[in-house]
Structures are given as structure tokens and as C-alpha cells.
Specification:
The protein is mainly alpha-helical. The protein is 68% helix and 3% strand. The chain folds into two domains: 2-82, Winged helix-like DNA-binding domain superfamily/Winged helix DNA-binding domain (Arc Repressor Mutant, subunit A, Orthogonal Bundle); 95-230, GntR ligand-binding domain-like (Four Helix Bundle (Hemerythrin (Met), subunit A)). It contains ten helices and two strands; from the N terminus they run H-H-H-H-E-E-H-H-H-H-H-H. Pfam families: FCD (PF07729), GntR (PF00392).
Length: 231
């Protein structure tokens, strides 16, 4: 499996380092490249091969450990080992469903961010975006999905297009069904909040290109986690 490991543990993109690291580790586990009972490469080795910091690798491994995919062992022969029994993906969702939902979401929501940034927003609209951003950034883990959805819908509403807002709402329902089948990872929530800040700042600054780019990067991070856990 040496060549397979080389293919999976190639450098990730900087924008979503944590999410893509989780995706690569999950692919290695679920494809059997690192089989149940086998040890993952060391933190130092993974950091070098993936082109990320050891802190990022440590956070990704901790997230998988908290969700019963791996365990850490101490001592001379210690390290991080894949559990003998790992959680199975939620049934009923095929790769085509996931790819279709994520493709539609990216087209709609990057366009919504760009369109919202291109409008002259009134004071009430600007206050509404800031309020939804604050709600999401201070939400508890249990509230996060709902507050995150409200923020994304507020961005769609800021385009002034009722049809686009309805399309984003429908798309979000599909994506939330997928997100509800994977664990909420706190490092991802912190990263998402920082990305939300960049998206809203770009919209309020009237910078369509930056708003679109920031939204695309944000959605790519979510897509990495969904592919890692479900595909």
C-alpha cells in the first residue's frame, strides 16, 4: 500500500488544511490503505507529506479519535492506530447524491455571495448580516447547524432575489441532510466562523470577487469533510 499512501498523503491546499487533512485520513482508513489495527504514519511524517503543521495533524487525529475511528497508544510501540471496528457511513446516500448536492450548492451560494456584494445594501440589510454572523460565531455545538443555515440564507436574501433565496433554501435542506450524518468537529467550526467573517466582510465592503472566492473556499472545506466521512 506504499504507493496508495503516497497518492493519498499528498500536499493539501492551504485554505482548508484541517478539513482536507481529515478527508485524506478518512480516505486512507475507509479504503483500507491503513487497515484496522494498523498504525498511521507519525504526526511528523504526516505533516511533512501533507504540507501542514503538526498542530493541524494533531487536531485532525484528535477529531477522528473522538469519533471512534482511531486510538492513541503510548509506549515504545505506541502511535495512532485504526480501530478494529470503525463507524459505518450512514445508509441511503450515494456518491452521486452527494456530488450533485455539493455542485448545486457551490453554484448557488458562490453566486449569491457575489451578487450580494454587488448590491448597494441598506442599513437594515447590513445590520441583518452582522446579526446573523454574530449568531453563528457564538452558537453552541447543538445550535450551530441552525444558526449556520440562517447566516447562509441571509446572504441569499441580501441578493434581493426571492427566487435565488428559495433555491438556496432548497439546496441547504439537501446539504443539511448530509451534514446531519457526520460529526461536528470543533476545529472545523472555528475555521468556518473565520471564513464566515471573511465572506460577510467582503459583502459589506462591496467586493464581489473576494466574496465569491471566500464563499468557494468555505464550501470546499465542508465538501472535504462530507467526502471524507461519506464517500
Amino acid at each position: 500500500m506504499e504507493h496508495a499512501q503516497e497518492a493519498l498523503f499528498r500536499p493539501v491546499r492551504a485554505g482548508n488544511a484541517f478539513e482536507e487533512t481529515v478527508e485524506r485520513l478518512m480516505q486512507a482508513i475507509r479504503l483500507g490503505v491503513v487497515a484496522p489495527g494498523e498504525r498511521l504514519p507519525s504526526e511528523r511524517d504526516l505533516a511533512t507529506r501533507l504540507g501542514v503543521s503538526r498542530v493541524t495533524v494533531r487536531e485532525a487525529i484528535r477529531s477522528l479519535q473522538e469519533n471512534d475511528y482511531v486510538e492513541s497508544r503510548r509506549g515504545r510501540y505506541g502511535g495512532t492506530f485504526v480501530n478494529e471496528v470503525i463507524p459505518k457511513p450512514a445508509p441511503g446516500k450515494e456518491f452521486g447524491d452527494i456530488h450533485d448536492a455539493l455542485t448545486l450548492r457551490k453554484v448557488l451560494e458562490t453566486g449569491a455571495a457575489e451578487a450580494a456584494a454587488g448590491r448597494s445594501l441598506g442599513p437594515a440589510e447590513r445590520r441583518g448580516l452582522r446579526a446573523r454572523l454574530e449568531e453563528a460565531s457564538t452558537a453552541s455545538v447543538g445550535e450551530y447547524r441552525r444558526k449556520d443555515s440562517r447566516l447562509h440564507l441571509a446572504i441569499a436574501e441580501a441578493t434581493g432575489s426571492a427566487a435565488l433565496t428559495a433555491a438556496v433554501a432548497d439546496s441547504r435542506m439537501r446539504v443539511n441532510e448530509l451534514l446531519d450524518t457526520i460529526p461536528l468537529l470543533e476545529p472545523n467550526l472555528a475555521h468556518s466562523n473565520a471564513q464566515h467573517e471573511r465572506i460577510i466582510t467582503s459583502i459589506l465592503d462591496g467586493d464581489p470577487a473576494s466574496a465569491r472566492q471566500a464563499m468557494a473556499e468555505h464550501l470546499d472545506g465542508t465538501a472535504s469533510l462530507l467526502r471524507g466521512f461519506l464517500v
